[in-house]
Amino acid sequence: xxxxxxxxxxxxxxxxxxxGRGSRLKELTDTRAKPAVFFGxxxxxxxxxxxxxxxxxxxxxxxxxxxxxHSLIRHCQRGWNFFRAERxxxxxxxxxxxxxxxxxxxxxxxxxxxQNIDIIDSYDVEYVLILAGDHxxxxxxxxxxxxxxxxxxxxxxxxxxxxxxxxxxxxxxxIDADDRIxxxxxxxxxxxxxxxxxxxxxxxxxxxxxxxxDLRARLIADAEDENxxxxxxxxxxxxxxxxxxxxxxxxxxSCVRHAPDAPAYWRDVGTIDAYWKANIDLxxxxxxxxxxxxxxxxxxxxxxxxxxxxxHDEADRRxxxxxxxxxxxxxxxxxxxRESLLFTQVHTNSYxxxxxxVVLPYARIGRKAQLRRVVIDRGVEIPEGxxxxxxxxxxxxxxxxxxxxxxxxxxxxxxxxxxxx
Length: 421
Prior knowledge:
- With 421 residues, the chain is α/β, with parallel strands linked by helices.
- The protein is built from ten helices and 29 strands.
- Strands 1, 4, 5, 6, 8, 9, 10, 11 and 12 form a nine-stranded mixed β-sheet that branches. Strands 17, 18, 20, 21, 23, 25, 27, 28 and 29 form a nine-stranded mixed β-sheet that branches.
- The protein is globular.
- The N and C termini lie far apart (69 Å).
- It catalyses: alpha-D-glucose 1-phosphate + ATP + H(+) = ADP-alpha-D-glucose + diphosphate.
């Protein structure tokens, strides 16, 4: 039953699609799905979609998982366990569990919702907000919900404004003067401009708003179509564009900025280079992504750890971090750290140096290690004297070096190196 005086967010469920591997992150997703990858010193990527929903007033959420989901499930159980059913709040984790047939996992993004129709029905919601769980951004979904209700659309699609020359990497939309979508194109060679600016294109963010009763009927029909791939971008959305009303919502209208003139921040950290850069950018004097904003916080699981500790103060053995982020539980022992980001419980040892380094939780940096432009995976033990970032050919012998010259180091890589020496 609709409650006309309630905020739209209170009548909405957020359904987060978090089952993808993110293969372009290479070995970073060997043991975890992309939404579970660490970001920003203490959070995970999925925390941004969930925090946006919570800050927007949405208190009913579900997370569909599939690929190597344990790390993601454990994080959500520990960090997002504050919802209370007696307050009509819910967060359900929905692994692909062969609920439809014994040999059937989630076949596509739409099928992930279809297989959980009965669970969504139990929420008694009027709207469903479909979210990708693998992007970094801040957005007030209430504004998108308002546009959806006011426009009478069958679907409202969150859109980025990107230069036309960059839009071929996205699913893009042609729109009319009223932001109604007239065509939906997947990675076109010649992306369309917009009516107000022919030099930019609207690209899909993978965010969709539907009225649940309408989406439910469409999902059931799609499930019966043997020719469908059961995907929102490939099947559900194109059908609505052709036979219904699809409207574009511009991210610039609802992004949460830390200052009026700040850019509309959105990042797909889907490659090693993009992931490294987005983390290192946080060390800037005024980063474009404000993690210190208490009005729109990014919620996460916070371990109970002691403060960061810096020890030794000698000319060549000084524990210090300059233009860097250092999380709780870290011990910087006689190490020089510059423009780097250290996650929880990282320990570094004397005479080592790190520059432009992203070091994930529980890593250990051995004495005299010299590390430049690196991403170090969780729990890695960097051996004494290891030098990375000076000889690209030598780095490639043992580690993953990206197109942009960033070196990814994991424990299996170090183990293979040790066995060969």
